[in-house]
Amino acid sequence: MTRKLGVCYYPEHWPEDQWPRDAARMKDAGLTLVRIGEFAWSRLEPSPGDLRFDWLDRAISVLAEAGLEVVLGTPTATPPRWMLDRHPDMLAVDARGQPRKFGSRRHYCFSHPGYRAEAARIARLLGERYGRDPRIVAWQIDNEYGCHDTTLSYSDAARHGFRDWLAQRYQSTDALNRAWGNVFWSMAYDRFDQIDLPNLTVTEPNPAHALAFRRYASDMVVAFNRAQVAALRPLTDAPLIHNYMGRVTEFDHHAVGADLDIASWDSYPMGFLLDRVEAPADHKAAYLRQGDPDFQAFHHDLYRGVGRDGRWWIMEQQPGPVNWAPWNPAPLPGMVRLWSHEAFAHGAEAVCFFRWRQAPFAQEQMHAGLLRPDDSPAPGLEEAAALAADLPRLPDVSPSRAPVALVFDYPSQWAWEVQPQGADFDYFALCFAMYRGLRKLGLSVDILPADPARLAGHDLILVPGLLHLSADMTAYLATTQAQVLVGPRAGSKTPEMSIALPLGPNLQGLDATVTHVETLPPGAERALQRGGAAERWIEAVETRAEILEETTEGAPVLIRTGRQHYLAAWPDPEAMGRILRDLCSRAGIQTTDMPEGVRQRVHGHHKLVVNYSSEMRVFENDALPPAGLVWKLIP
Amino acid sequence: MTRKLGVCYYPEHWPEDQWPRDAARMKDAGLTLVRIGEFAWSRLEPSPGDLRFDWLDRAISVLAEAGLEVVLGTPTATPPRWMLDRHPDMLAVDARGQPRKFGSRRHYCFSHPGYRAEAARIARLLGERYGRDPRIVAWQIDNEYGCHDTTLSYSDAARHGFRDWLAQRYQSTDALNRAWGNVFWSMAYDRFDQIDLPNLTVTEPNPAHALAFRRYASDMVVAFNRAQVAALRPLTDAPLIHNYMGRVTEFDHHAVGADLDIASWDSYPMGFLLDRVEAPADHKAAYLRQGDPDFQAFHHDLYRGVGRDGRWWIMEQQPGPVNWAPWNPAPLPGMVRLWSHEAFAHGAEAVCFFRWRQAPFAQEQMHAGLLRPDDSPAPGLEEAAALAADLPRLPDVSPSRAPVALVFDYPSQWAWEVQPQGADFDYFALCFAMYRGLRKLGLSVDILPADPARLAGHDLILVPGLLHLSADMTAYLATTQAQVLVGPRAGSKTPEMSIALPLGPNLQGLDATVTHVETLPPGAERALQRGGAAERWIEAVETRAEILEETTEGAPVLIRTGRQHYLAAWPDPEAMGRILRDLCSRAGIQTTDMPEGVRQRVHGHHKLVVNYSSEMRVFENDALPPAGLVWKLIP
Amino acid sequence: MTRKLGVCYYPEHWPEDQWPRDAARMKDAGLTLVRIGEFAWSRLEPSPGDLRFDWLDRAISVLAEAGLEVVLGTPTATPPRWMLDRHPDMLAVDARGQPRKFGSRRHYCFSHPGYRAEAARIARLLGERYGRDPRIVAWQIDNEYGCHDTTLSYSDAARHGFRDWLAQRYQSTDALNRAWGNVFWSMAYDRFDQIDLPNLTVTEPNPAHALAFRRYASDMVVAFNRAQVAALRPLTDAPLIHNYMGRVTEFDHHAVGADLDIASWDSYPMGFLLDRVEAPADHKAAYLRQGDPDFQAFHHDLYRGVGRDGRWWIMEQQPGPVNWAPWNPAPLPGMVRLWSHEAFAHGAEAVCFFRWRQAPFAQEQMHAGLLRPDDSPAPGLEEAAALAADLPRLPDVSPSRAPVALVFDYPSQWAWEVQPQGADFDYFALCFAMYRGLRKLGLSVDILPADPARLAGHDLILVPGLLHLSADMTAYLATTQAQVLVGPRAGSKTPEMSIALPLGPNLQGLDATVTHVETLPPGAERALQRGGAAERWIEAVETRAEILEETTEGAPVLIRTGRQHYLAAWPDPEAMGRILRDLCSRAGIQTTDMPEGVRQRVHGHHKLVVNYSSEMRVFENDALPPAGLVWKLIP
Ligand SMILES: [Zn+2]
Ligand SMILES: [Zn+2]
Ligand SMILES: [Zn+2]
């Protein structure tokens, strides 16, 4: 597999005579990919129908002549101001009922048919001009779907779209009323056009209503993306990509990814640490200038599962301080290189830095680039160049199956957001806690959708918190040769968000009935016999299966029959580590206790070891300074 | 007095062929009451005028034939979706100006005349059909008025209603301007239709304006309830009941109760602990699975005062985990029984569990019932049955006057919400702190409105924080043979929310002038000479009365002349205990220092002792395990 | 300079027959000024055009006959209710899009031309009647501009006004697009009427857009004030004054002040401490009943720079507990006198107490006056009288130049609010931290706008955080004989809120380039070699200048060439103290380490020493009790 480095570039931001010098410096730094175009609609079409592709032609020529490959973005995340004159109702509406206005980006509602057609139109126009251009090696569609909470919109377009979607799904309001249990609180509907969006209700809406809206909203992202795919596919053979954003879970990435060729994501380790990693303050302080040691890897492994045939990229990689976290310090020297190596070790085909030169104007003027606003090299450039020099020396590790599969299911995220039952129950956090536990044991992981066809070939399969266990899934879990861990909260609901009857988890061959659940505030953890505790969530289980873990009061917490295990609580880190270690032992997977902040990623006979901590760590005879890394052969 | 156990049941949620078995199991468990119908409007009238009472007829028959007595609810808390087509403006509007939409419950504005008429209509139709039916032993009107912050609405209906109400109250805008002091900041009105609701003002509205709106909003609840009472009264002799919700103070329960026969309330001890009891974190941790040891009793004693002739019920009693608190653990074994015994000891005629079978669908699917969703017994059922077995053995204790009366006045709650002066001044919290102090001394308490006619026969009368002292009240307090404690903040205002002149408290025969007040943030408590401290609120008092308590700097905090005492501060628990003990001593009331978490309720020669703590406690030679209780004769 | 004491009085609140007695008691207490009229519009013009000045004539007569001088306010902060019938769209609109309704005060949008004309009309009418009346010694225009967040309004009037303002400033949308960098995210505009206000955007608006709106909003306050000035100037020779409110920074006080004669401010030390001083909890606890030891002085020194020729007053001085802070305790005895002495020591011509008698009605009924609501003296009256007795004995200290100048620039406040980059970066807080550091060293300070013409004659000039360094400014700083400290963050932007190129600070003769910045959460401070640390904000600087301070890792933090210093971080208190001490030493300014809570203000050969702490302090052989003060000659 060839690994590439790239950069995000905005020729429209700079004088044209600066382009050749920029291109040459990119090439000198060892970069070979350059992403352009994704916010440039107002320059491509300054007024409706007035197409100005000439500057883009010239930019592509300059870049290509310097030996760079171009990734071309569709500019649909930033419709020009005139678009609002054509579609005054295209704006998304927030949960309080206010339109979200022009003046930044992503100012459109995914449900709006008029804007969707405009997006397809500009994609088609770009495809017609550049689809067969060999200098364009890939396409990026839109930018960071869902960023800035833009998946959910409470607009008129969404209201009408939701009613149509419900009519398609349920066919009759009687069926919908039954599915949702609308007899409760006299919520029954007679006509689909009586159904409103589930915002601003007096108290919480029916969770089935809320979950249906969440499914609808995700489908609208899929449909929006698909409209551009449909426009581009006939016009190009280059791969189609979207760049997802970290911990954006409001739409189903697997569903969007199914229409695309490569998954990519935008990796901002330090921004994410302060902005969206759930961790204690001392952990955040320890990793302030490095980013969380597992958050990037989680997304690498997730997007490898989203991309077709495991193909994935980093489309944007933080090269220095960003501008959007609560605080924005600079990375420790070496971290830019470390993050990039880690991405490659997880199978990335490309890592692109965001951005080439720091813009002195507009919203991201405080966001570092590889160059400073005054054109001098920023610290990131040196690390990028060092990385480029590293690349040829790296072992050629193609994506390989990891021993552990972790199921991540977007509808489960929505369901538990709708109904957390305890203030700190969060599906992502549960999956991430399990993932972190695996990483502390030195394990490599594949994160996969809840699809039995994807799970084959792993030695250990983890299915935490899955909303609904389908018949296919229970059949597979009962017959796979892998060790299987299901729970907590998995299989507890029907797809319509009712309680499953018989009560969950309904695993084949494992006798277990969750009779009721308890949520536990901080300080009310339930100690386990073997150490550690259950926190946040614990279930009462009736079972005749073997009990592997129980509370000090004798309530079963981990049970098993054969290879199938059911976990009836959210384990704290100590208990999580023990439970995972025992599972691996049964699965014949070797574990390694990693030092604090040290992580590894294994591919066949190679592995990368990285040190996220700010202190020297020794691991397997290697002394790793802060931000240190080593590639090694596995004997 | 006969004590009854009951349960809330929703026949419309279950197949009709399940009803007989449900009824038989209820009976087997020792339940004799069953409440039905209160959310069933969409089944009773699926479209306007299309009445379907047949299923209700059959449900009543099934229940009655099993030997159960029926409490029938009017379904007005959940108007069907078609009601909005008839009355598009019937929704309440929140303080930010947004309509609170259909999709859950309580989606109506109390001020809306059209909806009020619809509510009276359905009540009348139910009364016509079931009013003389002997199987219906009581009526519940609506459900949990004010729950989900629904008392205050900023709708057009409220705006117009408020103007009419003001015109009735003040007769002229000149009178209103004078009463409110509208000369201040040029706020005078020329016409009643210039007066808006007091939301969204630039800075705080005139407190007189705000208090008037709070009085108006409470009156609308009274009027809404009264419309249904007026419809039902001619049609039935069965008692009319409303089920109030814990710590809902936005309307005057005494005023609503005056139109009804029995007060009932919905008791969710664990939900309330985390959701609406103001207490330190360690206290909440200690009582996490038991509920606060005084919160239920406070409401029992409050609603005994709200019900006609002291008649009151628990209409809903938590039988296991609920779904709506920030966290929802399960009760300690025995607590369901303990809570119910305590209610009976405070004079409840009935305790009904909410609900029979946990619903697998809609908003409350995570709320425990006596049965699990799969029809198996939930833990609460066994406790309910044990309780049913206990009942015949309980001493027959009719409601009797407690030695202590505590005045609780809803308008005072509103007034101090409008004008707390310190961020943590809350009238309910003040009354509750005093109530807790009494309970820790083993005392039984009557909670009563500010009506001298209700206060007779008590040995100690406590009047904290009463907005206004009427001439009747001051006369009574000066002449009663009881010991009297008034203050802090009592008698400080006119009924129109101006400062009383002469300055309060204006007690007859007790020389005291509160010249100014101070509010104290946490950490700024003022130590008292005799120990403990004043917290949150302290007054400067000019007095020639006897000084019983003072700060270490010599400021009077408790003064008295004869039997009348004035308290010029919010005492911390230590000071509160001492002050109350001393008062009891002067009143000839015997006190008992209760162990932590142990409480008692005395009736004549019997008393119930309960242990809310999670540890074994010994009290008067009885060893009480967690959730333990004992009924005993008082020698 | 004659020093005066005064009081705020509302004759319209009291029966006319009480006026003479009030006036006599004011005079007896030693007060000589009385401010009236500023909220009385509804009494002056009860309906449109129906002018009732007779009562005001009589009030002025009564006061003047008692020997009092009158300050007359224009009542434009409280338009009567009928004004809304004439101008229904005059209300300000909040950032969420809701009109801010009638019912309190300041219910107008500064952009509304109709209301502005009404304000000018009532000012003109008052001027015509009282402009030449010798009993009126000064005018107050409006009241506390910007209080209650009223500077920023998102109304239609603001939207249209903003577009006109932009058209004036930029002349073409091309120029605007270039200035703002609207090529970024395709935000370009074709017509000025496409530009909306920068609220409710999907993510943050362009900071240039946001800053332009902040400038516009400030200009509207200036224009509103100027309209009244224009009405009054031809009609009176008495000085025109506005009373600013503490820490209101949304409009440019220097720009408003340029149209007026005297600056005044409303000093509520205890309200401010809890409501708007940023300080640790233990600091707030220590000064709970005294107010912050530097907050008042900061404003004294700021408004001395706002007033023409340094003329400034305290128009409102807290005389006891207020009603609007989170908690409202009473001042320590002596503090009312201390605050007033301190104001005089900083050059105040007058100190007026707010208010004469506590009103028993409306919004401020819990706000103390010099009299209680029952007409008895409140504690403040005695202190006011003691103060009046002090005045003749005070040294006659005219305003003199302080050795230190601190630049405070309102646009910098707006810019950094728009783009803090770190959650706790606040320009006011930065300037205040520097000011507090100076005060702890016993220094007197002039706070001045970023105008070289104003900076002459100081020995030390501090320029923290100045958005933009103009050519005039850099030239001045390079040539002044004063020691100069610039930074952090100064000179980092163009006036249009782009990054300055070359990169800042661009000082003449001091080689320094800030290549990037870091923001630091609490706990991530960077230790300095010489002790203390950088917190919140630190810059990477390339420099060949002398390094005076650096981090323990060797990053330069304070550099200098000649007299010019650049500070590349936000120093913690320890580092701030050392840096300022060293600067003073270089500037030949003598410093004094003040004991905790003790402060001094020097004028020529006199100085005032005050003790803000609640404990006895000894300073220079003077024992100062809590709230103690001493005036002394400097040898
Ligand atoms: Zn991005
Ligand atoms: Zn309920
Ligand atoms: Zn004021």
TrEMBL record, chains A, B, C:
Beta-galactosidase trimerisation domain: residues covered: 402-589
Domain Glycoside hydrolase family 42 N-terminal: 8-391
Reaction equation(s) it catalyzes: Hydrolysis of terminal non-reducing beta-D-galactose residues in beta-D-galactosides
EC number assigned by the record: 3.2.1.23
Any single biological process term in GO: carbohydrate metabolic process
Coiled coil: none
UniProt binding sites for Zn(2+): 109
Record: residues binding substrate: 105, 143, 324
Superkingdom: Bacteria
GO molecular function: beta-galactosidase activity; metal ion binding
Alphabetically ordered keywords of this record: Glycosidase, Hydrolase, Metal-binding, Zinc
InterPro entries for the chain: Beta_galactosidase_Trimer, Class_I_gatase-like, GH, Glyco_hydro_42, Glyco_hydro_42_N
Transmembrane segments annotated in the record for this chain: none
Annotated Gene Ontology cellular component terms: beta-galactosidase complex
Active-site positions on this chain: 144 (proton donor), 316 (nucleophile)
Family: Belongs to the glycosyl hydrolase 42 family.
Protein name: Beta-galactosidase
